[in-house]
Amino acid sequence: MTHSAGDSPREFGPDLAEVFGPSQRDGGPDLVQLLTPEGERVHHPEFEVDLSAEELLGLYRDMVLVRRLDTEATALQRHGELGIWAQLLGQEAAQIGAGRALRRQDHVFPTYREHGVAWCKGIDPLDLLGLFRGVDQGAWDPAEFGFGLYTIVIGAQTLHATGYAMAMQRDGVVGTGEPDRDAAVLAHFGDGASSQGDVNEAFIFAASYNAPVVFFCQNNQWAISEPIERQTRIPLYQRALGFGFPGVRVDGNDVIATYAVTKAALQRARDGQGPTLVEAYTYRMGAHTTTDDPTRYRLSEDVENWKLKDPIARVTAYLRRMGLADEQYFTDLAAEADDLGARLREGCKALPDPRYIEGFDHVYAEQTDELVAQKAAYQAYTDSFENDQTGAAR
Amino acid sequence: MSRITLAKGLNAGLRKAMEDDPKVLLMGEDVGKLGGVFRITDGLQKDFGEDRVIDSPLAESGIVGTAVGMALRGYRPVIEIQFDGFVYPAYDQIVCQVAKMHYRSRGRSPMPMVIRIPFGGGIGAVEHHSESPEAQFAHTPGLKVVSCSNPVDGYWMIQQAIACDDPVIFLEPKRQYHADKADLDETATPAPLFTSRTVRAGTDATLVGYGPTVKTCLRAAEAAEDSSLEVIDLRTLSPLDLGPVYDSVRRTGRLVVVHEAHVNLGMGAEVAARVTEECFYSLEAPVLRVGAPDTPYPPSRVEEEYLPDLDRVLDAVDRALEY
Q1: Is A394 domain-assigned?
Q2: What are the backbone angles phi and psi of residue A373, rounded to the nearest 5°?
Q3: Do residues A191 and A314 both lie within one domain?
Q4: Which of the residues A170, A213, A364 would you substitute to probe the B interface, choosing the one with the greatest number of B C-beta atoms within 10 Å?
Q5: Residues B142 and B102 sit within 8 Å (Cβ to Cβ)
Q6: Which residues have a Cβ under 8 Å from the Cβ of B56 and sit 6 or more positions away?
Q7: Do A281 and A238 belong to one domain?
Q8: Are A337 and A366 in the same domain?
Q9: What range defines the domain where residue A118 resides?
Q10: Residues of A with Cβ-Cβ distance to B72 under 8 angstroms
Q11: A140 and A241 within one domain
Q12: Which residues of B fall below an 8 Å CB-CB distance to A?
């Protein structure tokens, strides 16, 4: 609509039908893609990556195995072995592409769904189940693995990531030119989190201090039941410019493109050139979590359309077409996935319950007399049942 | 030996902590060139540089959230929330993230962080500048909460809070910043941080305060003509150190707790409950509380009616003595 001095109101900002309409349905014209849904290798003028067959097979294996991890965990929840599970189905390429772009010295701040990135950082997948089984609140050492504990409060971790990146600047591990020294932070969040104040504040702090952090948004189109249209009027990657740093939209179902774009963004951060927003355009094929019922709010037709863009199937097609893997490879990988599944099933059931009383010792680094007394009182109370000979023991 | 105000004591304490440990960083709004709106960080950016004294964007959740990241990488951030009423945007980061990190990581990720908050009223400010949110933090496991009441404590307690490996909410009575002076002996050995202190001996009733109300209690004790009042400065609100309070109440049999915060579910309620549990047979009267009614902080022209003063404290003492 053009400016008018008449009765009709002036319109500002983009037309929503344009932003979310048919022309954008596949990610729009700015989508960085290196492998089409049909498994055809294409090229991009800015983001190119030269993957060896071995490297590509590595990414493929990662995706197959984390999908199995996800499938097993979902099943374990249905069997009552997990209280809840946040599925990554459909987001394997986004997570493996990003995770494999990391260097050892880089640090990750995940949401609660980054099972694939955790896998890349070497965390035992069994350790991912503890939070969802209710036996712990994060089993791994963030400092040892360079991978923070899962964060439930939406977007809170993006500020931690930014502060961590600011600390890296003070440690002199940014922009030195030494590949094994320069480091960056990868901050994960989703399309829903992009509405949170914390995420926007993280953008502002990171831009202001030129912090070495890559904001990696998996836009899976849904924040539980709310579609992306409820969170934004413009494509998310375009928001970055308003904060003063570049934003890129990558095909989040394309592991090669995600790897290439994240790798470039991380290197930019390590070199001291500041933050980047990477919007991995993908789709949550499963429910938000195992408690959710997406049939109440979205069309099966959409899900069917996205099935055609499956992140694993397109690599399978490419590998077969190029003759990079034979049948034996696929058979062996399937067997490996079966082994992982079996290990997860048995391991999950064997995860021991924690002892509540031990928690008294973890509230503070420097224990307080108050908690010592409360712990002793709790112990005495429980002991009173064990010493009770009348049968009231617990 | 030097004669200092609370503002100077805090400034000198921060300086000492930064000299002693290169991992100590200061961050907040206007803490750099300006030295903070109360000048508590005056001159520190000039001497320690912009990397260690960081002027932040105006976003409290951002300040606390980024400080979490710094602490995770081994730094000891000391952050300034400009006014008590501005801490609420950071409430989620403080309560959900800072307070729980050590527990949920089972000790792997300590949070050595100090969150300095100028608190309390009496400076004639506009709304949101005179609040007393201490109970909300003391109610949260994983945080430690302290309040200094005088210049010498300011000097020592800020250093001790920074050295503590746990997150400490550090409440500074802003009304006292530039009020009284005291002699500081830098060679003295300070009392441990998480301890309360008897600041005036007495025999007839016990007054307990912290932060700005310690002075109110002392003035009340001096003004009391017919009775001898003991005054205890709590200093630490979480954990509480009530040993000296129990000892005192066992002798006096009467206790009045004084704070600027709302009486309802305030620190005084917890002190009263614990004293009742520990000193039930020593009490000659119910534990009384002097603090704010359940109204928000009023316009400043009438704030003296809202804040506990000498008369209200002595009125409570009279009621306790006459019970």
Answers
A1: no
A2: -70, -40
A3: yes
A4: A364
A5: yes
A6: A205, B27, B28, B29, B31, B62, B63, B66
A7: yes
A8: no
A9: 16-350
A10: 142-143, 148, 160, 163-164, 167
A11: yes
A12: 25, 51, 56-57, 59, 61-62, 64-75, 77, 89, 92-93, 96-97, 102-110, 112, 141-142, 144, 164-166, 194, 239-241
Residues A211 and A327 in one domain: yes
CA distance B141 to chain A (A): 7
Would an 8 Å CB–CB cutoff place A163 in contact with chain B? yes
pLDDT in tens, B269-316: 999 999 999 999 999 999 999 999 999 999 999 999 999 999 999 999
Confidence check: pLDDT of A390 > 60: no
Is ipTM > 0.90 here?
Answer: yes
The DSSP call for residue A21 is: S
Quick one: which of B67, B3, B86, B79 has its CA closest to B41? B79
Q: pLDDT tens-digit profile of B139-195?
A: 999 999 999 999 999 999 999 999 999 999 999 999 999 999 999 999 999 999 999
Pairwise CB contact (< 8 Å): B62 & A156: no
The active-site residue, picked from B102, B128, B129, B178, is B129
Q: How many domains does chain A have?
A: 2
In three-state secondary structure terms, A251 is strand
**Do A344 and A376 reside in the same domain of the chain?**
no
Q: In this structure, is residue A33 part of a structural domain? A: yes
Active-site residue set of A = 284, 288, 297
Q: Which chain B residues touch A158 with a CB distance below 8 Å? A: 65
Peptide bond into B239 cis (omega under 30): yes
Q: Taking a C-beta distance cutoff of 8 angstroms, is the pair B277, B313 a contact? A: no
Calpha distance A96→A186 (Å, rounded)? 13
List, in order of start, the domains of chain B with CATH numbers.
2-184 (3.40.50.970), 197-322 (3.40.50.920)
Residue A165 forms part of a structural domain = yes
Residues A150-200: pLDDT tens digits? 999 999 999 999 999 999 999 999 999 999 999 999 999 999 999 999 999
* pLDDT tens readout for residues B233-249: 999 999 999 999 999 99
> Both A339 and A310 in a single domain?
yes
Mean pLDDT, chain B, integer = 98
